[in-house]
Design goal:
rod-shaped, mainly beta
C-alpha cells in the first residue's frame, strides 16, 4: 500500500513537471544576406555601397563591399527585403522580392554594369533559394 502511494506521488510530480514547463522560444529571429560585387568581366568591386531595406518597416541597413568584393548583412529581421548597390562609374543595381526566413543565409551575387550612376539595373529575386552552404535542416 505504501509503495502505491509513493508511486502515485512520483507520477503526479512527473505530470505536474510536464504541464508546468514553458516551451523554449527561438533564440535567433534573424537572417543574413551575403554576396560578392563584381563588374561585367567578373572582377570584384571593393568599396561599393549596399543598402538593404525591409519592405514592411522601411528600416534600412547599410554595408560596404570589402577588398575582395564580398559583403554581408548580419542579423536582418526576418521578412521581405530589397537591396541596392552603388559604385561610382557603374549603374545602380536593385534587387527586390528577397524573402528571408529564420536563420536563412541568402546568397545575392551583385553584378554592376558600366554606366552613369543615374542609370539603374533592377533584378527581381528568385522566390525560392536553395541553401548550398549549410547542411542543417530547418522547419517552418
Amino acid at each position: 500500500m505504501k509503495s502505491f502511494q509513493i508511486l502515485s506521488i512520483l507520477l503526479l510530480v512527473v505530470v505536474f513537471t510536464f504541464v508546468c514547463t514553458v516551451p523554449a522560444s527561438a533564440d535567433n529571429l534573424y537572417a543574413s544576406i551575403r554576396g560578392t560585387v563584381t563588374d561585367p568581366t567578373g572582377a570584384v568591386i571593393s568599396g561599393a555601397k549596399l543598402t538593404a531595406t525591409n519592405a514592411a518597416t522601411g528600416i534600412t541597413f547599410t554595408t560596404t563591399s570589402s577588398g575582395s568584393g564580398t559583403f554581408t548583412f548580419l542579423q536582418l529581421p526576418i521578412g521581405d527585403y530589397s537591396v541596392k548597390a552603388e559604385q561610382t562609374g557603374f549603374k545602380a543595381y536593385q534587387a527586390s522580392g528577397i524573402h528571408l526566413d529564420l536563420d536563412q543565409i541568402y546568397n545575392l551575387p551583385v553584378k554592376l554594369a558600366l554606366g552613369a550612376a543615374t542609370e539603374q539595373i533592377v533584378v527581381e529575386a528568385n522566390p525560392v533559394q536553395v541553401e548550398q552552404t549549410d547542411m542543417q535542416l530547418g522547419t517552418p
